[in-house]
Amino acid sequence: MAEHDQILSDAEKEALAMVTAPPAEPQLVLVVDDNPLNSEALALYLKTKGIECVIADGAQAAIEGLKKEPRIGLMITDLRMEPKGGLELIQEIRGWADRATLSIIVVSGDTDVNEAVKAMHLSVVDVLLKPVDLGHLLELVRKELRIE
Known about the structure:
It is a single chain. This protein has about 150 residues and is of the alpha/beta class. The chain has a single domain, classed as Response regulator (Rossmann fold, 3-Layer(aba) Sandwich), CATH 3.40.50.2300. It is built from six helices and five strands. A five-stranded parallel beta sheet has the order 2-1-3-4-5, with helices on both faces. Helix 3 runs parallel beside helix 4. It is elongated and about 60 Å long.
């Protein structure tokens, strides 16, 4: 008798969920660099690949953006920024209850091994050196945002 207790089949439930559930808004990538040319170039590249981006000119702007925009699902940040560096930014984010698990990719032109290790200990996805292999970066972004 238990199999007759269901009014809708699993297929019908799935179809109904697709009709009634609002479509999920795409996640955004936050590109952080204190050099606007770098952040704009990277964001433009990702946008040409169909990935929505927002730009933050430095760590403080990134903090403000993360607090205002809940759709940010990934952050790409430089390490060497003034006045607050990328490692400090990542450490602060890791302390937030609602953003502690944010996916973060580090892109830096001048990183020593010690900084890279510190970043990896903060659970970043990867540390990429400039000039960045854009194909590899795109793979990482798509994987983290679960885009096929």
